[in-house]
Design goal:
By secondary structure, this protein is mostly helical. It is built from 5 helices and no strands.
Length: about 150
Amino acid sequence: MAANSNSPRNHMSIPAPIVNKEHGAWAMYLTPMAVGIVIGNVVTWNHLLLLIVATAFFLLSVPVRELALRKGTADTVRTASWWIAVYGTIGIMFTIPLLTQGHWGVLPIGLCAAVSILAILLIPRTKRTSRLSNVLAVSGLSAETSHFAKSIL
């Protein structure tokens, strides 16, 4: 009997992307960068690199949260792990050109992002503490990202 060609063992499939579905989170993420670019009054390739880096690490928080909540099946863990690797790799790859140009301001943004992701992992997810982790994330990233987007002319 021939093996079924649709069997998961016969091919590796890329899992569906895990993205943030909350429109408010997208607004909180994009607004500081847009404000910084508008204040700087110019758009450069570095802004595009920063947008890619910031988007990759913004997206990284969702599969990290999936793993932190430890809900789901082995398939959920595999999917979350896959997207953590993809988003993390993209974020690091596109950070390197900014650093080689001397734009060290991405490092404090990265530190704020890391603290935000740690907050997601360490703060229990109740309504009250969920708000606390969101406030930490927004306040840390908003000022720094806005300033950096303005400064990389």
